Structure formats: C-alpha cells, structure tokens
Structure to design on (194 residues):
C-alpha cells in the first residue's frame, strides 16, 4: 500500500504528525524491504540514507550523512540492519533515529532510499516487492510500496523538522530522484518536500 497511515494521523502527501502527549516523534525506525534479484542476475542493493541539516541552513548542505558506510558522530542515527541483496524475511534493512538526542543545532532530518547503480541502471519499477515502513514504537507513520517512484533510482520518504519549542514533527515526503546514492545524498534535502 502506498502512503497509508492511520486515519487519525491524517492522510495524503505532506501529512504531518506529532506523537501523542505533545512531545513529537522521539525514536523512529525506518525499514525497507525488496525481493532478491532473479537467479543469475546481479543483486539489487538498496540503501536507507539520512541527511541532517542545521537550523542556520535547513535547505543547505547536509551537516552529516548516515548510511551503510557512515555513522552519525554522536550515535543518534544508526543502521541497525543492512542488506546488499534483499534476502531475508520482511524488512531486511533498518535505521533508527533518536530525534530527542540530536544536537540542538540540527533542525531538519531527511530520510530517503537509493538504489545502487553499479550493475547497470535500475529503478524502483525494476525491483519487485519493494517497500518502506516508518514507525515510532508500534505506531505506523508511513507505509509505501514505491509505486509512485517506479521511474526513479532514488527517493525521499520522510522529513523530520524541529519547531521553535524544540518539538520534532514528521512529514511524509515521498518524492523521486534520478541519481545514484552519492549524488542523492548531496541533493536529497535541497528543497522542501511538502
């Protein structure tokens, strides 16, 4: 299902969510899944990527990037599971974001998914059973099957912004890009997604 979230959180592109209790999202998991490539074909390799942005330049260059090959300097954003093939049951790659522990200078975090292009051009339409799930505890914030990104090689899925009172908000931000993981990491947060 694409962009489906519980009715009480609102629906449709650009949905905003503040957790119950008025504290905003605190600890969020982003998970992805995809089917392995057919026998004899090069493996499909997807990656979750998170980019952080400062309060001074929320749409400028990222302060730092987190993916399979890099970690956040303070340990607040971590890859807890990584797959290079999609092999396994359910969601085979996962990233945890501890928003409440991020440095006060960070005001925006954008999370996306990119397909490695080292075995030839691949888009989300070339990969079967791909999907993303964003949850906070047992609460589903976003579930998408990338159907709207069929012609894209990468895409953003979620944006978290820190308000004036320091509370984080979640925004659905499913948007396609035509770039490899390195270029996508640099451009994924360059413009508002809402």
């Amino acid at each position: 299902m694409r962009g489906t979230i519980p009715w009480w959180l609102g629906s449709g592109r650009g949905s905003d969510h503040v957790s119950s209790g008025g504290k905003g999202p605190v600890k969020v998991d982003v998970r992805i899944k995809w089917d392995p490539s057919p026998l004899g074909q090069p493996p499909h390799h997807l990656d979750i990527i998170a980019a952080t942005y400062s309060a001074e330049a929320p749409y400028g260059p990222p302060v730092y990037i987190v993916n399979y090959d890099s970690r956040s300097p303070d340990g607040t954003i971590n890859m807890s599971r990584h797959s290079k093939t999609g092999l396994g049951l359910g969601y085979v790659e996962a990233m945890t974001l501890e928003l409440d522990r991020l440095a006060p200078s960070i005001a925006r975090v954008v999370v996306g998914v990119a397909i490695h292009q080292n075995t030839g051009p691949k888009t989300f339409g070339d990969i079967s059973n791909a999907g993303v799930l964003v949850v906070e505890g047992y609460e589903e914030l976003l579930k998408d099957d990338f159907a709207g990104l069929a012609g894209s090689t990468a895409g953003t899925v979620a944006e978290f912004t820190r308000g004036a009172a320091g509370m984080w908000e979640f925004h659905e931000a499913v948007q396609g890009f035509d770039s490899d993981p390195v270029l996508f990491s640099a451009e994924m947060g360059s413009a508002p997604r809402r």
Observations:
- The first strand starts at residue 16 and ends at 17.
- The helical segments are 181-187.
- The two ends are 20 Å apart (CA to CA).
- The first helix runs from residue 181 to 187.
